[in-house]
């Protein structure tokens, strides 16, 4: 058996083991200790495999979320162009309708800001020396 074949076989075994562990952990609601007792797999390996699989799932979901975010941003750009065109087309003919287009454009911009996290609360972190009087002066500025 070549090294490549050996690694492929080992990788397949690890994936099968992780799948079995996650089935027991999630579907059957078994604890890592119960999984170890049922399967004969070492407790430490079970903990490590659960951690690795969770990290992989998070990484994959983060990628998926980014794809959705990019698609939604492109759709919002197209909507904003359509709404801006509608506003310009109606500003003189029908000012009341033009205002509705303007309001819609604001809603599109608000949605974009939410999607980009631009409206998230900001945190100000203040670093200061341990001398209390210096901290008080720094915070008062």
Task: Please describe what this structure looks like.
This protein is mainly α and 141 residues long. The chain has one domain. 79% of the residues lie in helices and 0% in strands. It has five helices and no strands. The protein has helices at 3-27, 32-39, 43-90, 95-116, 132-140. The longest helix has 48 residues, at 43-90. The model is unreliable at 134-141 (pLDDT under 50).
- Intertermini distance: 72 Å
Query: Please, how many helices?
Result: 5
Given the C-alpha coordinates, what overall shape results? elongated
Beta content = under 5%
Give a topology summary.
Elements: H1 3-27, H2 32-39, H3 43-90, H4 95-116, H5 132-140
Helix pairs in contact: 1-3, 3-4
List the keywords:
141 residues, mainly alpha, 0% strand, elongated, disordered C terminus
Summarize it.
The protein has 141 residues and is mainly α. 79% of the residues lie in helices and 0% in strands.
